[in-house]
Amino acid sequence: MEGLARDGTEICLISPQTGDVRPITHDDPPIWNWRTAWSPDSKYIVFARAAVGCPAELWIMGADGKNQRFLTRGINGKGADFPHWVQLTLRNVDEPRWSVSSR
Length: 103
What we know:
The protein has 103 residues and is an all-beta fold. Helices cover 0% and strands 41% of the residues.
């Protein structure tokens, strides 16, 4: 099966002070995790995830890697990628609200 993607990637946090690397995703079997986007308040990370041969999905997790939740496979399940945060404007709401979108 030459030329096919295998294994996977993990999302890691790197300390700028020490250079220590700490994985915050741990998938078994390995899955591809990539394209992270931090929430404006730094509490959440949205990211793309896909098993080999499957459409990309958008997932969200806490900044510590806990509470991972599936969000979407995109329109008609054809895949979602390039997650980013979008500020919502709501009437009669003083504080900003945020939503996740993909390009």
